[in-house]
Amino acid sequence: MRKLSLGLMGLLIAACYFVPYGLLGNVESWKGAFLFWTIAGLLVIGVNAMATASFGSDEQ
């Protein structure tokens, strides 16, 4: 589960660079960027919770 969550975190990091500077680069309104960063922030919190859920067990 930890490998999956680390892979998802890598995709989120890539999206955090690509979406604002690539897809939303020419959009003058801030609403799209605000929505993206809100959703990205919630996804990062969720993925971090998945990655750290097994810290109490002996999973390697």
Briefly characterize the structure:
73% of the residues lie in helices and 0% in strands. It has 60 residues and is mostly helical. It has one domain (2-52).
Walkthrough of the structure:
It comes from Aurantimonas endophytica. This is Putative membrane protein. Keywords: Membrane, Transmembrane, Transmembrane helix. With about 60 residues, the protein is an all-alpha fold. It has one domain. The chain has 2 helices and no strands. α1 runs antiparallel to α2.
Write the SSE topology.
Elements: H1 2-23, H2 31-52
Helix pairs in contact: 1-2
Shape: elongated
User: Are there runs of 5+ residues with pLDDT below 50, and where?
Assistant: none
Q: With helices defined by DSSP (H or I, 4 residues minimum), what is the helix count?
A: 2
Please state the average pLDDT score. 84
Q: What does the radius of gyration come to?
A: 14 Å
Measured between the Cα atoms of the first and last residue, the distance is 10 Å
Percent of residues in beta strands:
under 5%
Order of helices and strands: HH
The total tally of domains equals 1
Into which percent range does the helicity of residues fall? Answer: over 70%
**Number of strand segments:** 0
Structural class: mainly alpha
The largest sheet, given as strand count, sense and whether it forms a barrel, is: none
